[in-house]
Amino acid sequence: MESKAEGRVEVKMSNSDDRMGELKAFDERKTGVKGLVDAGLTKIPILFHHPPEKFPIASDAESSMIPVIDLEGVAKDPMKRQQVVSRIREACETWGFFQVVNHGIPLSVLEDMKDGVRRFFEQDDVKKEFYTRDRTKPFFYNSNSDFYSSSPLNWRDSFGCHLAPRILNPQDFPEVCRDIILDYRTNIMKLGITLFELLSETLNLHSNYLRDMELGCTDRISCAGHYYPVCPQPELTMGNTKHSDASFLTVLLQDDIGGLQIFHKDKWLNIRSAPKTLVVNIGDLLQILTNDRFKSVQHRVLSNLIGPRISFACFLATVTLQHQSFWAQ
C-alpha cells in the first residue's frame, strides 16, 4: 500500500498477521528492495526487521589483516610459486578467506562487470522481464532467494546465472550486462584453473588433482550479482545474514562500499575491497574434502547508508544455484 505525503511517496506495509499477503504484494511489484527505496520510504518495512542480537559489535580491523596474495609469476617462477602455495595453505587453514592481486583479469573487465551489475538493477523495465523464483532458468532475478520461508528478509536484490558447464545462449542474458558476463566467464574460468592447481599443491597433491576430479571443481560455475540499496535504517536489518558457501571455492568481486565481514576468532572482521583485488573464500565442499583442514567460515553483509553496494560472486562448485548460499556476499 502506498500513500503520498508532502510530495514524497511512502511505502507502508501492514503490521497484521497476514505475512503471506505482504510478501505476495512485495513480490508482485517485481522491483525488489530497490523499488522500496525508489518509492521514497524513510522507514523499512517490518518484514526486514532483524532482532538486535543479529548486530554484535564489529571489529574495526582493516583488510590488511586478511592475507593478500600476489599471483604474478606463479606460472613461470618455481620459487615464487612455492611461496604462494605456502601462503595460500596458511590462509585456507587459518582464515578460510584471502585476497588475490595480479590474478590475470584486467582492471577494465572488473570495472565493466561492476557497471554491468549496476546497469541491470537500475533499469526497471529490463529487470522485470527476468523476475522469477524459478532458479532453473539460465538467468533469473528476484529479492531474497528464500523469500517465502525466511524471516526476516535481507536488504538485497540479486540475479543469478549458470556459467558452466552449459553451452551458453547469449540471448538468455539481459542485453545491458550480456557481453560483460560472457567476457567475465572466460576470465574466471582461467583464474579458477590457476587457483585449483595451487590448492592441489597446498595439499601436496599433483597440480591437476582437483581439476581432474569427477566432482568437476572447475567445470561447474554459477554466479550471482547483488545490489544492496541504501538503507534508511541500517541498524534494523542486514544485507545478508551469516552463512557459509556450499561451493568448493567462491571468487568475489566487490565495490568499495564495504560491508562484507567474516567471523574469525570469535569476532567479526571487515573485509574492504581495493582496485584490482578479488576476494577468495573456501566453501563447505572443500572443507569436507580436506577433512576440515581448510576452513569454510561464516560471513555476512551489513546494510549501509551510502549504497548501493555492488558485488558479483562466482561459485566454483558441483552444486547449483538451487542452494540459497549462492545468493550471498
Task: Explain the overall architecture.
The structure is a single chain. With 329 residues, the chain is α+β, with helices and mostly antiparallel strands. It has one domain: B-lactam Antibiotic, Isopenicillin N Synthase, Chain (Jelly Rolls, Sandwich). Helix content is 27%, strand content 22%. The protein contains eight helices and 14 strands. It has helices spanning 19-29, 32-38, 78-94, 107-121, 124-128, 178-202, 209-212, 284-289, and strands at 2-5, 8-11, 68-70, 97-101, 139-142, 157-164, 221-228, 238-243, 249-254, 260-264, 267-270, 278-282, 299-302, 309-316. The strands form three sheets. An eight-stranded mixed beta sheet has the order 3-4-12-9-14-7-6-5. Strand 10 and strand 11 form a beta hairpin. Helix 4 (107-121) packs across helix 6. The longest helix has 25 residues, at 178-202. It is globular and about 60 Å long. Mean pLDDT is 87; it is low at 1-16 and 320-327.
Give the tags:
329 residues, disordered N terminus, Jelly Rolls, 4-stranded antiparallel beta sheet, 27% helix, 8-stranded mixed beta sheet, disordered C terminus
Amino-to-carboxy terminus distance: 30 Å
What is the number of domains? 1
- Any idea of the CATH topology? Jelly Rolls
For CATH, the homologous superfamily is named as: B-lactam Antibiotic, Isopenicillin N Synthase, Chain
CATH architecture grouping: Sandwich
- CATH level 1 name: Mainly Beta
Helix content class: 25-40%
Alpha-carbon Rg, integer: 20 Å
List the total number of helices. 8
